[in-house]
Request: fold
Amino acid sequence: MLNLRADRSRFETDMKITRMTVLRWMAIWLLCCAATCGWAASKPLLMHYMPWYETPAVRGQWGSHWKGHEGGHDPSKLNASGLPDIWSHYHPLIGLYDSTDPDVLECHLLQMKLAGVDGVIVDWYGMAKYADYPPIHEATKAMFAATAKFGMQFAACYEDRTIELLVERKQLEAEDMTSHLTEMFAWTQMEWFSKSNYFRLNGRPLMLNFGPMYVKDPGVWSRAMAGLPDRPALFGLHHLWKQTGGDGGFTWVHQAPWDGPQDRQVIRKRIFEVFTYFSKEHSRHLSSAYPGYHDMYRQSHGQLDHADGETLRMTLEVALEGPWPLVQLVTWNDYGEGTMIEPTHEFGYKFLEVVQTAQRKEKAIGFAAEDLRLPARLFELRKKKGVDMGALDVISEKLNRGDCVGAVKKLDAIGG
Reply:
């Protein structure tokens, strides 16, 4: 009996070892498949990004999104708080920046990556050579290139109100808007959709439209996309998307959940109701989480309290827990509307820490709150004279790989 027990014990031990070996190899295989096929272990988290900021140091002028569309602010001067006079109640912690600056893009993407963000959705105005569309297009292309460098995904959010302005200003005939959209989609197919880091939803390149605000004939959109070999998944605003004949809608900032009793569970329930109000089909809805709202418009759209991060925390919780295929974060840097998740003088790293905390649970990321400060240290060194750029490139690569300990050692050695 003792020998039988010993044989059985050895057999069970061998089986455990075999099972462990198989499980390890299965885990490795799944990771390889995820890397090769683009599988996501968790719900994708994409940051809505505004590429419309210009500075004299980079492009010779202050853009309208820093100085205001009517030029009522002078960013070269300080306000009563000692911060630049800009068209916003809030100020970026790294200072005013240009959206084409590679150092800025590096800083922003590394901050997002260390918070567990998977990619960006860039607000894009198309390719027309009118108004501020060309500099926005230039900055959008720069961001797309940067996402590839830092292993992030990219998608575009087109603004069809650009066509309205072009028609009003006699830059485009109304009857030509189908050909205008056809040209736009052909360009995105060639330059973006075909690239490996363009974000795909159910195998199709995702394109958002902040609308439709002007082109409300589904036939126009259908004809414009008819010749594409890789037809995009087209998502509009959740109450308007059916006017494009698109695939679904996405939510933006909604203040309604906070109207009435301020019980947390009641607010969460109302947030869920907003996400499902216009479509009960989960695949046709993209949920959005946001930190608050405080705009600079002459006729304000209202205000939603940032609540020390609680507004973002609740909207993100509901979005991640729900059945929808991805979460959009609204926004990284819309300073005119006060929806910034980017670190600011007013809120510090609060909102980015909320995102990181949520992603520790969702994706089991191993980064800490203090790691979020490292890209800004790198950015500050990038702007100093006499610093070895090669050494900074090494730090950037370490952060990109998630080696925060190694990056800190290098930063400390340089004195950053």
